[in-house]
Amino acid sequence: MxxxxxxxxxxxxxxxxAQKAFLFFLTAIGVRVVxxxxxxxxxxxxxxxxxxxxxWTIIFRVFYVIFxxxxxxxxxxxxxxxxxxxxxxxxxxxxxxxxxxxxxxGDMLEKGYPGDFLDEIEADLGRIFNTxxxxxxxxxxxxxxxxKRILATEFDNFVKGERFQEIMYSVLGVGVFNADxxxxxxHRRLTRPFFTREKITHFELFDRYAELAIQKMKNRLLAxxxxxxxDLMGRFTFDASTDFLFGSCADTLQDDLPYAYSHLVxxxxxxxxxxxxxxxxxxxxxxxxxxxxxxxxxxWPLLEIxxxxxxxxxxxxxxxxxPIVAKALSRNREQSLENTVKDPQKSKEANDIQVGDNDxxxxxxxxxxxxxxxxxxxxxxxxIAGRDTTAGTLTFIMHFLCLYPDVCxxxxxxxxxKVGASRRPAVEDVREMKYLRAVxxxxxxxxxxxxxxxxxxxxxxxxxxxxxxxPPLYIPSNAPIIYSVFMMHRRKDLWGPxxxxxxxxxxxxxxxxxDERVRKYxxxxxxxxxxxxxxxxxxxxxxFAYNEMSFMIxxxxxxxxxxxxxxxxxxxxxxxxxxxxxxxxxxxGRKGIDxxxxxxxxxxxxxxxxxxxxxxxxxxNAQDT
Length: 625
Description:
The protein is an alpha+beta fold. The chain is 54% helix and 7% strand. The termini are far apart. Mean pLDDT is 87; it is low at 1-7 and 347-351.
């Protein structure tokens, strides 16, 4: 047990250095043996000192790494030529190992606008290129043809890969989003029954938490304060997710909502954190930390020599989830024992486990496996999908409703016409509301919540060139490929302007989902719109997410006449890193138009939140008074 605890205490950096030290030690032994058996015997060279041995070991290791890199390059060139293909264009940086390119991409991912700098490279090199940071392949593409190959037609050759799994393991564990092969298929079988047609219409569940969220919002607005809509939607989706997954709610909507910075300063108001709120904060922090590991490729452990940066927030996460999992396992053991006593033959039917009408995902998981780590990891992966993606999209939708009051008015008219001012919407209502679906899809097009994803090739393959006059492209084995749905969704050559050439592809225009542009652009090439992935790994909860988002939007528009962004410059602290850069206002496209700061963990979110105000007759009367 003590040895196990010591292993757990090792940081990623220590493990990384230990592996390198072991290789260095083996090399030193080899150098010593060569000196004694070869040089000493045949060339009568005197004995090397320890310093000389270390010196020649370092020299050997340096040349060995250089040889590996060059051999790999030559092998790939030879293999590409033998297949009649050409190598991918490579970004040419100004510093050794393309360190300047890595820094620019890292800065974009951490604090820039999504797609910045990569747009420039695409304009120069095309829609697929190799960044070759620190001499390691890292391919990038925004081409729907290549993304289709990765996700569908060549699915078996593209996996998450060891590099991604090592980076994400401390947060995602062995869950479905971090699994390949048989483990991925196992997780897929576990979760599929909970996203069948019969299970996705949980409108009673949505209504329970939507009512709480809207009442919290009204109370805050009636008091004359703005609301962080992103925080509110995070609580709504989290409470609904924990109820759906566990059968018991985390009750984060019962906690106090945060205040804007200006109110906190003027009133010295403080908010207390509950156990659920601490879990939620740690959950987001862990995702942010693990997402930043990828910026240094396989060398990321060097930044975590003294501590695993995710250890502290993940301990909070585990402290929250482990008792829930343990309780479910205990309850299942007691139930199994009781059933076996009543019917001894029942134990023989363990391989034919069915999902009960009232079973939660947790109930089902404990019937399939008694491994608490597998269960916890699967639940955590589902929580990321159930909370972050839906909350992020609802936040971006609200931003557009604030920015485009005509869209908000038309959408509210559809809500009142189809559902009325107070009736709870049904799944049939949602299906008939075409403009609502158009608003959601247009938001997902401009701000897909997973803007970048990654796969790695198992074996080398050849892809046709975008330019038919050029030879096909060679994709090396074990090469990570980042594909950007965010950038693909904004490509003018894929989405095009409208019939009058007046609306560019970065304009928020729900009409594009209702007019001839659907048939012109999307129908011939459905892979240009992939907010929920595609192929065998397509999101199982896609319809669940559409229903949940639709339900909340309908309830909001039944409760409020309109919405507006809080334009107070003191909503956030003056020096907050989450303040949207002022110089962006002069930029073209959505970067200059939008009024929130898009940042990325595993998913896209609004840094600093989205502070809004809303109006209905009750709030307007209170303001007049």
